[in-house]
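Field log, afternoon session.

UNIT: design team B
ACTIVITY: writing a sequence onto a fixed backbone
BACKBONE:
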């Protein structure tokens, strides 16, 4: 137990900052003196702790200002873990996708409850959050920067709601310092030759048509599995993305597309139309062969008996297929990156690609595929210069 020292602030009679030192760590707390209870007992509520005295003073001033405005929220004895599991998760369940809620719940149980579950919600401060992020990055199985930042995102949203619901006066996660994001790694993708080798060697595979459509449209795994024949018009050559399949606790569920722009119409090239027609004919043959055992479904891509394919099964099957073909190992999602990169190389405009991929904005597409955009710009620069200089020489 270290030194405890109180520092009075000039001109303030209803609060002060206290300095506490325990196990070599110094923390500063803003202490607010509330109106005495009927029996005369003085009531003090503390806020913190903070790494710097300055932060504690700012917190005290904020609390005192809210006292004067009548918006002050007294600290509660509820723990951070109780708030997350008893109030926040149930409260937001109807507002987020099932997969998002499941992800929040798993990360809370794995990373937040063991370390901060018993911490008072009112006394939780940025210092504790910084300690959390540091601990998650250490040990025998450290988490990636991306995962730690995702945990911070959960904490920030939860405390933002706690503030809005009148549980705490402010969102202390806004004062914390999660690790800085690392520069995104370059996407892995195949060359046109590698794509052709893969499609050629997987011809006859149950999932060949799914791989083919993924490589000619850039659709996400869940979008492909959620595609129904009613969403496909082979006569016109287009399909509509209306739903997606997600895995929540390994249970398959249906969900809305990822964003509003993800709900989109995609034009199909003649080769993709031909592939889907052949796939449709083969699926009808399978239906006759299975007879009463056929699992009636409306989906384009199914198992041999017509039943829905689990998303993870697709990824596992794809990995096995790549290893058999002896191509560079990429993830199934990298087929989307392959399509985007090769489409830009072929001259597709970024805004057209953004529409086909269902990105939130063209700016996101430009940032995500800057490697391909840069190569396209270099080629375009040469073409433009040749045209301009040629025109100048003729005038």
């Amino acid at each position: 137990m270290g030194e405890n020292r109180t520092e009075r602030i000039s001109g303030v009679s209803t609060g002060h900052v206290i300095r506490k030192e325990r196990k070599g760590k110094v923390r500063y707390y803003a202490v607010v003196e509330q109106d005495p209870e009927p029996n005369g007992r003085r009531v003090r509520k503390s806020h913190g702790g903070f790494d710097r005295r300055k932060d504690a003073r700012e917190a005290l001033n904020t609390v005192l200002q809210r006292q004067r405005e009548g918006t002050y929220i007294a600290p509660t004895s509820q723990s951070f873990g109780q708030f997350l599991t008893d109030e926040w998760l149930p409260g937001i369940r109807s507002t987020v996708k099932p997969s998002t809620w499941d992800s929040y719940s798993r990360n809370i149980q794995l990373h937040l409850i063991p370390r901060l579950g018993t911490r008072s919600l009112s006394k939780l401060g940025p210092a504790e959050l910084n300690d959390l992020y540091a601990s998650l990055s250490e040990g025998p199985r450290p988490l990636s920067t991306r995962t730690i930042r995702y945990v911070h995102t959960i904490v920030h949203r939860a405390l933002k709601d706690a503030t809005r619901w009148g549980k705490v006066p402010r969102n202390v996660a806004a004062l914390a310092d999660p690790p800085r994001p690392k520069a995104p790694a370059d996407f892995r993708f195949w060359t046109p030759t590698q794509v052709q080798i893969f499609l050629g060697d997987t011809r006859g595979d149950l999932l060949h048509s799914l791989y083919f459509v993924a490589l000619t449209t850039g659709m996400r795994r869940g979008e492909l599995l959620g595609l129904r024949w009613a969403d496909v018009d082979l006569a016109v050559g287009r399909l509509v993305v209306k739903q997606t399949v997600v895995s929540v606790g390994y249970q398959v569920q249906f969900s809305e597309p990822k964003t509003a722009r993800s709900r989109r119409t995609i034009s199909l090239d003649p080769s993709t139309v031909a592939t889907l027609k052949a796939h449709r004919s083969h699926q009808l043959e399978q239906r006759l062969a299975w007879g009463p055992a056929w699992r009636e479904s409306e989906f384009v891509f199914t198992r041999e008996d017509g039943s829905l394919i689990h998303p993870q099964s697709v990824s596992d099957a794809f990995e096995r297929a790549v290893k058999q073909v002896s191509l560079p190992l990429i993830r199934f999602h990298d087929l989307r990156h392959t399509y985007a990169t090769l489409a830009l190389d072929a001259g597709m405009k970024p805004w057209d690609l953004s529409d086909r991929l269902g990105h939130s904005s063209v700016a996101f597409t430009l940032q995500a595929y800057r490697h391909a955009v840069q190569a396209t710009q270099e080629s375009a620069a040469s073409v433009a210069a040749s045209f301009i200089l040629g025109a100048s020489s003729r005038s």
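LOG NOTE: Residues 370-394 form the longest helix (25 residues).
NEXT ACTIVITY: expression trials, pending approval
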